[in-house]
Specification:
Blueprint (H helix, E strand, L loop, with lengths): L4 H6 L7 E4 L3 E5 L7 E7 L14 H17 L2 H4 L1 E4 L15 E5 L9
Antiparallel strand pairs: 1-2, 2-3, 3-5, 4-5
This protein binds guanosine-5'-monophosphate (5GP) and zinc ion.
The site of zinc ion has 6 residues, from helix 1.
Length: 114
């Protein structure tokens, strides 16, 4: 997708700190971290919002959670706890319209998130 930040990062056109690069999914450090660990786990396929996910995407979306587990365990977050969150739509705080899952950890988390 042209003019998409995360498609451009995936294609190496815009730099980012990649922490994982798999067949269908990659992960980067968030440029404006909201916690000591703040990673973005991103499917390589361009989907604008969670509402575009179809049955054919479910294997890829499932793999996001196994990648999240691996990244969390590498950072010892399995012991302290972590949060995986995805914002759907501007009203929920989505600002980049290529779906991504935030992996947050390394500090106490509040609920509700606001
Ligand atoms: P959203 O608000 O859509 O749920 O999350 C978008 C996230 O992307 C934000 O946490 C924001 O800090 C992050 N972000 C925006 N631009 C860039 C960028 O150029 N590089 C990286 N690594 N993260 C970005
Ligand atoms: Zn994209």
């Amino acid at each position: 997708m042209e003019n998409c930040l995360f498609c451009k990062i995936n294609q190496g056109e815009i730099p980012a700190e990649k922490v994982y690069d798999g067949e269908n999914v990659f992960a980067i450090k968030d440029i404006n971290p909201q916690a000591p660990v703040h990673l973005l786990i991103i499917p390589k396929k361009h989907l604008s919002t969670l509402l575009e996910i179809e049955a054919a995407d479910c294997e890829t979306i499932g793999s996001i959670f196994s990648v999240a587990n691996d990244l969390a365990k590498e950072r010892k977050l399995d012991e302290s706890g972590f949060r995986v969150v995805a914002n759907c739509g501007a009203g929920a705080g989505q600002s980049v319209f290529h779906i991504h899952y935030h992996l947050l950890g390394g500090r106490a988390m509040q609920w509700p998130p606001g």
